[in-house]
Amino acid sequence: MRRIIILLLIILQSCVMNKDVIITISTPYGDMKAILYEETPLHKKNFIELSESGKFDSTIFHRVIKDFMIQGGDINLINEEEVIDYTIPAEVNNKLFHKKGEIAAARMGDDVNPNKESSGCQFYIVDGKVYTENELTLDINALYEGCRMLLQEEEYSDLRQKFGELQSDPEATQALAISLKETIKEKYGIDATKVISKDKLEAYTTVGGVPHLDGGYTVFGRIVEGLDIIDKIAALQTGARDKPVEDVPMTFSVEKINKKTITKKYGYTYPE
Questions:
Q1: First-to-last C-alpha distance (Å) of the chain
Q2: Which of 106, 120, 22, 117 is nearest to 70 (CA)?
Q3: Would you state the pLDDT for residue 1?
Q4: Beta partners for 61?
Q5: What is the pLDDT of residues 27-82, one digit of tens each?
Q6: Res. 10: pLDDT tops 60
Q7: Could you tell me the pTM of the whole model?
């Protein structure tokens, strides 16, 4: 009998381990379905608890910027009695980055939050834009520093004149600077090329995202259905502090589903 009980417990534990959650975020513009990453367990646990408890319900997207992100989940805006004042230790993972549809934790700035700890409730969903390969692999600051050094030399006085003529045309100015990349590298050892992984390059040049946020915030989930809802909310008319003129409330529901089913239905592959 004892062996049977132990076997049943093992089977039950195996079933639990083989399941994950799909969180549905319902808005007036439609539903978004999200998975949360196992690589960020603290953020995953916190988000599930807030969703299951109903504390997230009726929160709004209070900050919306087209081609950037939609931010919400501030429980303190709707509930003055139960203040969320805790933070979550950063779980920044280089493999998780800000492509469109990713969910990340909002946080206070580095000046008061050097450890990049996350807000206990506020999150944002990446909207972003599609980038060219050149935009992603060009270190513009290094390039312009090299140009500044180059133009200080007398032999490049003709280039100073060209840059002066193009100062009202940013695109032409950048194109001229890019043409000097190799000269700058050979002359000063300044390499204006940024290294970016193949995964990021493919994502940011196809679905898009917000690459400059990578490494600074914890990405902990992904919208696997309803990406068009992000576009609809991001396009809303906004007022002061990028707040939509009309509130966009949310409700949350949590469903436990077999991981194989999630992979088959939503195309998400779990880490080994």
A1: 35
A2: 106
A3: 57
A4: 72
A5: 999 999 999 999 999 999 999 999 999 999 999 999 999 999 999 999 999 877 77
A6: no
A7: 0.88
